[in-house]
Structure formats: structure tokens, C-alpha cells
Amino acid sequence: MFQSARFKLTLWYLLIIMAISIFFSAVIYFGATREFDRILRVQRYRMEHPEIRFRIMQQGNFFETIPLPPLREPQLIQEAKMRVLQNLIGINTLILLFSSLAGYFLAGRTLKPIKEMVEEQNRFITDASHELNTPLTSLRTSIEVNLRDSQLTLEKAKEVLESNLEETKNLHILSDELIKLTQYQKPNGNFAFETIVLADVIAAAIQKINKSAKQKEITIIPAIPKITLQGEKKILIELFVILLDNAIKYSKEQKEITISAKEKNEKIEITVADQGTGINEKDLPNIFERFYRADESRSKQQVSGYGLGLSIAKRIVNLHKGTISVTSKTEKGTTFTIVFPHALEMS
Fold first, then answer.
1. Are 339 and 322 within 8 A, CB to CB?
2. 35: exposed, middle or buried (C-beta count within 10 Å: 0-12, 13-18, 19+)?
3. Per-domain residue ranges for the chain?
4. pLDDT (tens digit per residue) in 79-136
């Protein structure tokens, strides 16, 4: 599809360029031929008026009669016209060849972001369909099997309903996360950026995640100086909820999570460090991809989720013109580092 669009766009480039080139070539050609025709008219006029075949020029106190230079024959002028036309055709041919290559290249550059966007959307639809298919299939199978059971008891029916309710909750979580992904993908979404206090954002995130931390007796240690930044408070809180929730999920009981911030080179650097199971080195380049969940040590804990949290976190950071990176050692812990621009210290 995009190859066809690329050729079509190249043809449009060629049409525009060649139309301009041919127009100016026509102007040059007709300008040159008019000059040649003027020479012919002058020649005929001189032949009809012999008295003007000489030019009188003053040399000091004397006047000298100088013969005018002979004019070219009409045949030579016709040949000159033909050479001008041939040169213009040759130049336009070169322009056509160069424009074809340049237009094809520019068409590719123009369509590249559109192609990437469409491919991203197709991957998103494929991934989302796959993730939605599993719980929906599970629900359908459970309902069909129990409907066929002639000895289905009330107690068994309640168990089935509870199981199906859990699946619908998971589907609701998945749909919410998918909506967030599409919302945060827009570079100019309806977000109200303002000057906010970083410590307030972190405190709100900790409060939201505090219940989960208490269940595993995990201590969250904030070390946030008085720094402000430009951002959307609600989604920044969500960013740190995702990172803290991720740290809690993959940490054993009675561990610590440290969240700190500092101003460095007119930027804000924030780290969220846990003492969890860590991430295998081969998985680190992929953890911000949609639906990606690391294998081995992290997946052994049977942690719930669809692998969308870190992808959402990256989108939020991108919306704030920041960067997010991760370092990790298995069985030692993981550290996420977020860097935001334009830090402003409070007085």
C-alpha cells in the first residue's frame, strides 16, 4: 500500500516540478526567439535603407564613418533557435531524471512517519485483540460448560459467577489501560500543564499505593526536595503509582522502596529503586513495550497484569518531554530513572 502511495506521491512531485521547469523553459525559448526575430527585422531594415549601414563616431575633433557589423543570415538564426530548443529539452530531461530520484526519496521520507503510525496502530490492534481474546474465551467456555451441566448446583453456580466476575474485572482493567495508551499517545492531548510541586505528586502517589505496600510490609522512603516542574498533576501521579506498584509487585515482604529526586544541569532527575527480584539483562530493552512481561524470575511470582503499565509510564514521560531508563540486577533490585526538563527550585 505504501509503495503504491510512494509512487503516486513521486508522480505528483514530478508533475509539479516539470510544470515549473517547462514553463520557465518556454519563457526562455520564446524570449530567445523574439531576440532572434528582432535581429532579422533589423537586418531587413538595413537592407532596405543603405544609408544606415554605417555608424558615424566622433574621434576627438573629427568624425569617422564606421561600417556596422554584418548580421547573420536567417538560416543561421534558425539553427540557433533549434540549438536553444535542443538545449532546453536536454536540460528538462536531466531535471526529469534528477526529480524522479529526488521525488522518490522525498516521498519515502514524507510517508515514513505515516507508515510507522499505521504499523503501530496495526500492532496495537493485533496485540489488544490477542489479550482480549484470552479472557473472553475463558468466560465463554466457563459459561457454556456450566450451562450444559444438568447437575449444576447453586453453590457451583455462585463459584462460576465469582470466577466470571473476576475475569470481567480484569477485562475492565485491560480496557482502561488500552484507553490510557491511546490517550497518552497523542502529543497534544487535552492536558492542563501547570507548575506543580514534585513532593505533592509523590505524596499523592504513595497514598494511593500505600495499602498494597502495607500488605507486604514494604516501606516506601521518599527523599524529595522542594522542586517544582511544569506538568499535568493527575497523570504524573499515575506515572509514580505505576512505578511504585511495579516495585511492590516484584519485591519480597519487608523490603524497602526508595524514591528520590535532585536537580541536575537544569533538569529534574527522579529515581525509584526497589530491592526486588530484578530484571534479566536480555529483557531490559523490551520492558517498555506493550504487553511485554519478562520471563523467568519476575514471571515466577504470578504477578497480575497485562504488561501495559510501563508502556503507559513511558508515554506519560514522553508527554512531559522527559526520558525514562532502567537498570537492574537479578535478585538485587531495579532502579527506574526519570529525567524531566526545566526544573525550578522553590524559594
1. yes
2. exposed
3. 2-118, 123-185, 194-345
4. 677 777 777 788 878 877 887 887 778 877 777 777 777 776 766 666 667 667 767 7
Grid cell of 343 as nine digits: 526544573
Q: Which CATH superfamily is domain 194-345 in?
A: Histidine kinase-like ATPase, C-terminal domain (3.30.565.10)
Q: For residue 182, give Cα distances in angstroms to 175, 210, 306.
A: 11, 28, 16
* This prediction's pTM: 0.58
Which of 182-185's residues contact partners 24+ apart within 8 Å by CB, and which partners? Answer: 182/124, 184/235, 184/312, 184/315, 184/316, 184/318, 184/319, 185/315
- Asked if residues 337 and 269 have their Cβ atoms less than 8 Å apart, the reply is yes
Question: CA-to-CA distance for 98 and 33, rounded, in angstroms?
Answer: 28
**β-strands 219-223, 256-264: how paired?**
parallel
Bridge partner residues of 259 (DSSP): 222, 272
